[in-house]
Amino acid sequence: MRKPHMSGLPRHLPSIAALRAFEATARLGSATQAAAELAQTQSAVSRQLKTLEDQLGVALMARQGRGLVLTPAGARYVSEVRAVLQRLAQASVAARMLEAGGALNLAILPAFGMHWLAPRLSDFARRHPEVTVNLSTRLAPFDFRTSRFDAAIHFGREDWPGVQYLPLLPETVVAVCAPSLVAAPLATAAEILRHDLLHLDTRPRGWARWLQALGHEASPPPGMVFDQFATMAQAAVHGSGIALLPTFVAEPYLASGQLVLASDHTTESIGSYFLVWPLAREAPPALLAFRDWLAEEAPPGTGSAGDA
Q1: What are phi and psi of 260, to 5 degrees?
Q2: Phi, psi for 36 (deg, rounded to 5)
Q3: Alpha-carbon gap, residue 289 to 101, rounded angstroms
Q4: How far, in Å, CA of 114 to CA of 111, rounded?
Q5: How many CB atoms lie within 10 A of CB 144?
Q6: Which residues partner with 68 through β-bridges?
Q7: Rounded CA gap, 213 and 216, in Å?
Q8: Which of 99, 124, 242, 283 is the most exposed place for a label (fewest CB within 10 A)?
Q9: For 57, left (φ over 0), alpha (ψ -120 to 50), or beta?
Q10: What's the pLDDT score for residue 266?
Q11: CA-CA distance, 174 to 259, in Å (whole number)?
Q12: Residues 77-117: pLDDT tens digits?
């Protein structure tokens, strides 16, 4: 005689409906109350209980007065049934979440990620618990075909090949410095130029454009150069000079009093921030959820970047 295949499940397992009917009746002590909870008739619940007992070959419940109580076998069995139903419910939720969400691998720019995106991510996590966002820093465009990223934050214009764009916000900059450097915002370019200027290597014409808006056409003097806004902001805090910072980077420093406005003049930078993702791939559900959420977070009327 062929031996049964031990790695498979038994052929005649109790139905989920019967197990739910048994668990509810055991918990409530009444087939009538269990039927109301399960939106079934009392006779349907009773039939499911009898089928379960017949299938197992053991009495699970006994009548006591007008109610039902567990037999010793039923008491042992119901604890296992509850554990199985709980695991099944968790597995079902996990399966739905995997289909609707999953992981989103996002490349970010450091300052934008720290000062604009990170404070908002708790709202996304609350609204989309099925999505896990993984963040990594990338300072320049890359080839999505050879990367693990699903999307990226891009600054500049729409000049990243092979991607789609969601405009987020233009970069507006302000001139800031330590409170010890100026008693009040400076009114003219000449007053600004009496102080050291701090430069960012990815915005080489930042000061030239800012000063041109004040009528100063000559090239600005050289100064300390930084590769990230965060280190330039710290240098400004410690009195190294005047820095041009995006408003979303400057605001916490201004609010705390670590920095003050060196001028009341603001200007829009040469580019905007975008969410970008590859054209060649179908956007996964996690990216679609993140994209739609970011579209709500972007300021009204956000458009594409201006000309360089």
Answers
A1: -130, 165
A2: -65, -40
A3: 8
A4: 5
A5: 22
A6: 63
A7: 7
A8: 99
A9: left
A10: 86
A11: 11
A12: 999 999 998 888 777 665 655 555 688 999 999 999 989 99
Match 């039902």 to its residue by tokens: 68
From 20-29, 89-98, 114-123, 285-294, the region with the lowest mean pLDDT: 89-98
d(CA 246, CA 173): 4
The DSSP string of the chain is -PPP-TTSPPSSPPPHHHHHHHHHHHHHS-HHHHHHHHT--HHHHHHHHHHHHHHHTS--EEEETTEEEE-HHHHHHHHHHHHHHHHHHHHHHHHHHHHH-EEEEEEE-HHHIIIIIHHHHHHHHHH-TTEEEEEEE-SS---GGGSS-SEEEEEESS--TTEEEEEEEEEEEEEEE-TTT-SS---SHHHHTTS-EEEETT-TTHHHHHHHTTT--SPPPP--EESSHHHHHHHHHTTS-EEEEEHHHHHHHHHHTSSEEEEEEEEEEEEEEEEEEETTSPPPHHHHHHHHHHHHHSPTT-------
Q: What is the dihedral of CA 277, 280, 286, 289, to 10 degrees?
A: 60
- Structure tokens, 138: 């990338």
C-beta of residue 258 within 8 angstroms of C-beta of residue 245: no
> Where do we find the tokens 């400004």?
236
Q: What is the pTM assigned to this prediction?
A: 0.61
What is the pLDDT averaged over residues 64-69?
Answer: 87
Find where tokens 């990216």 sit.
287
66 vs 10: which has the higher pLDDT: 66
Which residue reads 């079902």 in tokens? 92
How far apart are the C-alpha atoms of 45 and 20, rounded to whole Å? 9
pLDDT digits (tens, 9 = 90+) for 142-198: 999 999 999 999 998 999 999 999 999 998 999 999 999 998 999 899 999 999 999
For residues 280 and 145, the answer to whether their CB atoms sit within 8 Å is yes
